[in-house]
Amino acid sequence: MKKLLILLASITLFSGSSVAQTTREFTPGERWYDEKGELINAHGGGLLYTKGTYYWYGEIRGTSASEGVSVYSSKDLHHWKNQGVALAKSKDPSSEIAVGGLMERPKVIYNPKTKKYVMWFHLELPGKGYDAARAGVAISDKATGPFTYLKSFRPNGHMSRDMTLYVDDDGSAYHVYSARDNYDLRIAKLSDDFLSVTTQDSLLFSNHREAPALLKKDGKYYLITSGCTGWKPNQASLHVSESLFGPWKLLGDPMKGPNAKLTFDGQSTYIQAIPGKKDAFIFIADRWNPKDLKDSRYLWLPIRFEGGQPVVEWVDRWSIKSAFHN
Ligand code: DGJ
User: Can you say whether the dihedral through the CA atoms of 98, 143, 290, 262 is positive or negative?
Assistant: First the structure.
């Protein structure tokens, strides 16, 4: 019995979950466990920071199924508590968010005027593959949800697949989305309540890109995107502009290091700024595993600036302290 207890204790001590829970380092591509030792299931996601807490929203995936949107919370970006399902699939088979459809790339922003948390995501209707190409919107009074599904639409009539949300310094919010079968990347300004798009909707470029992730530094916007190769990785590109509505200039591939040409086998999903630290951003990507989507891995890497331009260089392990010195 004593031997069994010692064995159990050492398994717990050296299992991936306990390493993840004691470390202050990011280990891109390794399995990442929540504070209960369960694999974090939050793919194609995005973060929201409010009042000292980070919330991580992402796709809940089964082996392949899309099972709603999860939300995790953390004070330090390392240790994540599963806060449950932020937006559940509807049990009503006639619902737009019924089982059999897709909810991808969820992003959540807070609207200080309405005091609501607003979620946008890429919605595909049950049984229709990727044909619907719509933006879905849901709302909650709390960051942890549960969110109430409101509606879906094609922004100003445009197809809408991969997407991100961006809140600028003046509080206005934008939806950046792949349109026209992913040939176009577009941006639409959101209404004041963040629940709809306005007609301020413009083409950014037509380079067949998806997986947009944005950051702003010294008044310039930097946009990282991927190519369109399904779940397979491809080369990232970086664009810069002085205005969200363009003109956007292509700067090239911001990835550096082994396998940089395939974005380290990953695909961008979000860029998180670290509050209180100047020019400290984390590049967040998914390393998809189409054979078992729930076991797709997360690549979190520090962004550094070379000649003012963002560079994402591969590192096996890193910490906020080591990467960002101010
Ligand atoms: C690439 C997109 O970026 C993902 O979100 C997902 O839609 C896959 N394509 C599906 O093949």
Answer: positive
